[in-house]
Amino acid sequence: MLNALSVDVEDWYMVGAFERTISRADWPSKEVRVERNTDAVLALFGDAGVKATFFTLGCVAAAHPALIRRMVDAGHEVASHGWDHVRVFEMTAEQFRADTRRARATLEDASGQAVTGYRAPSFSIDARTPWAHGILADEGYAYSSSVAPLKHDHYGQADAPRGAWKPAAGSELIELPPAVVDIAGRTLGTGGGFFRLLPYALSRYGMRQVNGAGRPATFYFHPWDMDPGQPFVADAPLRSKLRHYPNLARMAGKLRRLAKDFDWGRYDTVVERERARMA
User: Which residues pair with 53 in a beta bridge?
Assistant: First the structure.
């Protein structure tokens, strides 16, 4: 089964875990590592022979347009992650519409391709934002990967569908959520920090569980997830540090194993397969 592989392209200081420690006003003073880290991801994917979708912040594309072209030249999909990682439930509907338009225009200008996919920062489309999918449909997006069907202190809508679904009435917009699995009575994610922190065998078991249920696994991580040299934010909350920093040096090796153990492709390809299955 073809599974969906993705990267959320943002720099180390832009993450939700540090949003109360590092203000946006401080971003220009921080060491920029997103380009070198994303190039490392592109090299890893090239060696593994896999294609993926890069959900990229508009502000990153504006600062590094040549990086976006390298993604495209390598055969990957460029999709939107919003402009600068503001969570959807922190915006009004019109602010959200403006944010998606700004990011998309910048990404399309840099990539030279249509952008048809969207992922909310920190999976922040949930029950608080019933208008979000309708706006994405109005704006012509083909799919979203923005609703995490679990309970998490930063995000999640536990009662949301785990497979592909159509969230906007009268629209063909597909929501393809991040994969979650049930292990020892708990619902866990399979990508991002879950993948980096948990033993690889557990992640592999979970993704096989998803495939066994007849669904494609949908996987994500960030370029900073494989950067042990990134600056240490000493005044960040302890929980954030325990989530952000462990196993950074091991991430690349785990990703290489993942690339060998499953079949991976771009989100747009997997979405269209799911759309055909739902027809």
Answer: 6, 77
